[in-house]
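User: I'll paste a sequence; please echo it back and then give the predicted structure.

Assistant: Echoing your sequence first, then the prediction.
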Amino acid sequence: MHGHGHFADPRIGVEVNNPPDLVSPQLAALRTYQFSLETPEPVEGAFDAEAAGRGRMVFNAVAKCASCHVGSAYTDVNQGILHTPAEDGQDPAYALRSATKLYRTIPLRGLWHPPQLAGPYFHDGHAPTLGAAIDHYVQLQGLVLTARQRADLIEYLKTL
């Protein structure tokens, strides 16, 4: 496409117009392709399969993770949903740098693959481990997870 297209970002005073626009007509197909890619299977032996099975139930029910981490990419951003810093319990300074001033739900697809699994997590990196990320939402949402549920949830996240 050789840079033929239109790009504008009024936040930084940039507008580039290089006709004909060969980029915009391709964006929908590119997005469809991107989200059609299959996630590679996690490495066998890198997680406890039995615990991960229980963790999937925790993810979908008691921990309420699936309310935002939905679909095959495990994010609600594809539904046009964004979250305020207060909803996410995140520092608003990072959201203020974005066009929407909101946070997207980070896709979990491929989380098992290093370096993603190694952390840190959240936009500001304040959760160094998966356990710390879970603890953040336990506190924020007033969830009650047993130690086993928490451990099982971690094992399930290792499979995504």
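The radius of gyration is 19 Å. The chain has a mean pLDDT of 91.
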